[in-house]
Automatic annotation (TrEMBL), chain A:
Keyword entries, A-Z: Ribonucleoprotein, Ribosomal protein
UniProt feature coiled coil, ranges: none
Family: Belongs to the bacterial ribosomal protein bL17 family.
Protein name: Large ribosomal subunit protein bL17m
Matches recorded under PANTHER family: LARGE RIBOSOMAL SUBUNIT PROTEIN BL17M, RIBOSOMAL PROTEIN L17
UniProtKB/TrEMBL annotation, chain B:
GO cellular component: a single term: mitochondrial large ribosomal subunit
Record protein name field: Large ribosomal subunit protein bL19m
Keyword Magnesium: no
Cell compartment(s), UniProt: Mitochondrion
Keyword Transit peptide: yes
Top-level taxonomic group: Eukaryota
Source organism per UniProt: Spodoptera litura
Lineage per the UniProt record: Eukaryota, Metazoa, Ecdysozoa, Arthropoda, Hexapoda
TrEMBL record, chain C:
A cellular component term, taken from the record's GO annotations: mitochondrion
Domain of life, per lineage: Eukaryota
Matches recorded under PANTHER family: LARGE RIBOSOMAL SUBUNIT PROTEIN ML39, MITOCHONDRIAL RIBOSOME PROTEIN L39/PROLYL-TRNA LIGASE FAMILY MEMBER
Alphabetical keyword list: Ribonucleoprotein, Ribosomal protein
Protein source organism: Spodoptera litura
Name under which the protein is recorded: 39S ribosomal protein L39, mitochondrial
Length: 201, 307, 338
């Protein structure tokens, strides 16, 4: 049982974090691992959408999330955060992008800053899982084709109209009841009516 | 519980005396408040961020004084129910005896029940060189040099045989662990058993003792030169060229930037907020009672010359 | 064949509408359907023959997987043919074509000139027109379903269906059942109607469009006095009447419509309401068939769909095509097939 490190405060990541890191083996050991991740994080911040192998993408995703959350938490006047950004972003103009573009973009969001999609992998050849890693709110077209939220789709139009009509009838009912209550001074019936309000859709 | 105890009968008397005379002293939680204030103007600038709002919780300052209330950061060993039960047990124990705020580097006197000792109690004074563990298993190690022999005692913080824990000098050192005192000259870890407790004026931050110890010549228990210690003065004197080369080879300058390693070693703010909200009230109550009793003692206890 | 058409048209010109009416006595509804279908195919063939020498047009397709240019036959090739050049997915999912970014065009209507082409399915970003076409098609097929669902002893005269209003919650067709004066369908009968409807959709018939002259239209709908009354006002603008055909059923509609009946997915024939007309008008009463449907591939929870079906049971508030309501009179036995 270890004691938690209390010298630093970190904000919770909105992505799944494995109990242990992945080694990303290579001839240079842990240093090589960090170098690989630096390249990937730099690429992600630069291009906002990249395709790569799953293991590396998942690791780099966590680092990118941490970097952005640190940038949001401390801002650009905090020396250690600036050093960290300087270390992780190999191209220095991306430091400006991190603090001036990404921080305002994600400052008031409840979601993770990145998204990870499974990508199709070649039928033949090495069967490594391929994924697409992207920053949320990137300028590219959406990868998923889920448009079921469009209010103009026929099913949504029908449901909207049904909801509207239901509300209208309920309001009319309530208005009628209020009139009745005003006449008879009977508040009990009104309370009973108010409780019977199921919700559709 | 005890790794090694060297004990003399006269000091057992002393323990009893100390226990009776000066039980506890007022605790200061001011330092955390002071720290928060230094950072706050920067945070207020962008008040919109949710992340910042959650980080502004004043309860977070409690983490320095009560680190054992935070669970183990390794998710394999997390169990929210067990953690909750442990926290309530810890608070119950804290209602029984006064466990003061102390840090690595503080000098403590601990009295434990010992059925084999004369007077059934055993008192030990030493410098806290390490704090480990979380929950009910939190522990700390005291080190002292008794009769030219280094002695280290490891105590469990919530051990029911602990009768009192008294802070004789509340201070921090430059490092998180003072294990290098084992290889330092003995005067750095020698403390007399009849030390008077030093009372800090209320509201002062916990002082950091900038003393740098001198190590004995090699052989050492650990390779201190590789640990980037701030509290050691003469480490370079004892190194050979070979050691310096290997230190360079073994250096891990990237670890400072390994954001996920840091993350895996800490409890995130959002989780901490829940924990501190749970225990905050009782901890503050305990602090208040401790403060009032300490104030009473300072006024009522007559000056004793027994020392 | 042309001679036949000529014969017919001369016959129409010779006989006025009132003179043609006695003919209706000899037509059962099945015979009328067959006759109309026959005339439709003849006219369609004639119009195709009129195209004459085949000319090529360039159709610039825009959309997934990538934009391209197709060389098609003028007056013969339809957007459906273009989709068949692209992929099966395009063929199955496209409901409507959009020419030059502004003109909505049926999938089975021949292209007449160079244009850009976008294929629209039910999940495009702005599906209002597709939805309207879908709703219109649903009404249209409901008419076809109503004509074939009744026994031969019950004459069915389709009246009309109003323009698509999706927010009203149901598509409708007003039908005149002259021998049934007070018919209230049971649940079983509604289910039978829906089953007939589903049979039609399963056939996956294309909806073919044809523009015919007023005379021919009158000739086709000679046994249906409601339609014969409507045709002159429809043809007032350019003397043309737009007809659609699904299977053997031919009906008048402004269009456009979706590609095939297979694109109508889940549906429910919710209710049949009686609408009463004024006593002095020529139409005493009509039956308003109501239903609700979703395109193929739209997933909806059964509970949610039951809400829509319940709502479709209420009488649709669209204005009745016949004047004032009056009280209905007699009762009569209903008789339905299946």
């Amino acid at each position: 049982m270890n004691q938690a490190d209390v010298s630093k405060l970190v904000s919770k990541l909105r992505v799944k974090v494995l109990p242990r890191h992945r080694n990303l083996p290579g001839p240079k050991g842990p240093e090589g691992r960090i170098d690989k991740l630096r390249k990937t994080v730099t690429g992600l911040i630069k291009f906002e959408r990249i395709e790569l192998n799953y293991n590396r993408a998942d690791e780099a995703r966590q680092y990118a999330e941490r970097l952005i959350s640190e940038a949001i938490r401390h801002g650009d006047c905090h020396k250690p955060t600036m050093d960290t950004a300087d270390f992780w972003l190999l191209e220095k103009e991306l430091v400006h992008k991190l603090f001036k573009v990404l921080v305002p973009r994600y400052e008031s969001t409840n979601l993770s800053y990145t998204r990870l999609y499974n990508a199709p992998r070649p039928q033949y050849g090495r069967s490594l899982d391929k994924v697409v890693l992207e920053l949320r709110g990137n300028p590219y077209p959406d990868l998923l084709n889920n448009k079921s939220n469009n209010r103009l789709l026929i099913q949504n139009v029908l449901l909207d109209a049904a909801k509207n009509e239901y509300r209208q009838t309920k309001i009319a009912e309530m208005a009628k009841n209020i009139g009745k209550v005003g006449a008879t001074q009977n508040t009990d019936s009104k309370i009973n009516e108010a409780h019977e309000k199921p919700n559709i859709s | 519980m005890a790794l090694a105890i060297r004990w003399s009968s006269s000091e057992v008397f002393g323990a009893a005396k100390w226990f009776i005379r000066r039980d506890c002293r007022a605790l200061s939680t001011i330092p955390e408040r002071a720290e928060e204030q230094t950072v706050s103007p920067k945070r207020e600038r962008q008040a919109t961020s949710r992340v910042r709002i959650s980080a502004r919780n004043p309860n977070l300052g409690l983490r320095h004084a009560y680190p054992e209330f935070l669970p183990d950061p390794n998710p394999k060993w997390r169990n929210s129910l067990r953690e909750k039960l442990e926290r309530s047990d810890m608070l119950k124990r804290r209602n029984q005896i006064d466990i003061p705020e102390f840090y690595v580097g503080s000098i403590l006197a601990v009295t434990i029940a010992d059925p084999h000792a004369q007077g059934k109690t055993n008192r030990f004074v030493g410098i806290c060189i390490e704090r480990k563990g979380c929950g009910l298993r939190a522990e700390f190690t005291l080190r002292n040099v008794v009769d030219h022999q280094g002695v280290e005692v490891r105590y469990d913080l919530y051990d029911p045989t602990v009768q009192s824990i008294q802070v004789l000098r509340l201070e921090k050192r430059l490092d998180d662990k003072l294990l290098y005192l084992r290889d330092a000259l003995p005067e750095y870890s020698t403390f007399s058993f009849d030390m008077d407790p030093e009372v800090l004026p209320e509201g002062t931050p916990v002082p950091v003792n900038p003393v740098q110890v001198k190590l004995k010549p090699r052989p050492w228990l650990e390779r201190w030169e590789r640990q980037e210690l701030k509290g050691v003065a003469n480490i370079e004197e004892h190194l050979k060229e070979k050691d310096r080369v290997r230190r360079e080879l073994r250096a891990t300058p990237w670890e400072k930037y390994d954001l996920m390693k840091q993350y895996r070693n800490t409890i995130p703010i959002e989780d901490q907020n829940d924990i501190w909200a749970e225990v905050n009230h009782q901890l503050r109550q305990l602090q208040l009672t401790r403060k009032t009793t300490a104030r009473k003692r300072t006024f009522t206890t007559p000056k004793s010359q027994l020392g | 064949m042309r001679r036949q058409i000529l014969c017919l048209s001369t016959k129409v010109t010779q006989n006025s509408c009132t003179k043609a009416l006695p003919l209706t006595r000899f037509l059962s509804s099945q015979e009328a359907i067959d006759r109309r279908y026959h005339l439709f195919t003849l006219e369609k063939k004639r119009q195709l023959d009129n195209v004459g020498r085949i000319e090529k047009i360039e159709v610039q397709y825009k959309g997934v997987p990538k934009s391209c240019t197709l060389i098609m036959n003028k007056g013969i090739s339809t957007p459906y043919d273009c989709a068949r050049h692209l992929s099966e997915w395009h063929v199955e999912s496209s409901a409507l074509a959009l020419l030059d970014g502004s003109v909505y065009w049926d999938m089975h209507r021949p292209l007449t000139e160079n244009c850009t082409l976008e294929l629209q399915n039910f999940s495009v970003a702005e599906p209002q027109q597709v939805n309207k076409a879908f709703w219109r098609t649903c009404s249209f097929v409901l008419g076809a379903c109503a004509t074939i669902a009744f026994k031969d002893t019950v004459p069915v005269k389709l009246h009309s269906f109003p323009g698509p209003d999706i927010r009203s919650g149901s598509f409708i067709y007003d039908v005149d059942l002259p021998t049934l004066s007070d018919w209230k369908p049971t649940q079983q009968e509604l289910i039978t109607l829906a089953a007939e409807y589903i049979k039609l959709t399963r056939l996956n018939e294309p909806l073919e469009r044809l523009e015919v002259g007023e005379e021919l239209a009158l000739e086709m709908f000679v046994e249906n006095e409601h339609k014969t009354k409507q045709i002159p006002s429809i043809a007032r603008h350019n003397g043309k009447v737009t007809l659609y055909k699904v299977g053997k059923h031919v009906d008048i509609s402004k269009g456009p419509m979706i590609s095939t009946t297979g694109q109508i997915g889940r549906l429910s024939i919710a209710s049949v309401h009686k609408i009463n007309g004024s006593a002095e008008g020529d139409v005493k009463q009509l039956y308003r068939f109501q239903g609700v449907a979703l395109p193929t591939g739209v997933m909806m929870n059964h509970f949610t769909f039951s809400i829509l079906a319940q709502r479709a049971k209420k009488l649709n508030p669209v204005k009745s095509p016949i004047p004032k309501p009056v009280e209905a009179e007699e009762k009569e036995e209903i008789a339905m097939k299946g």
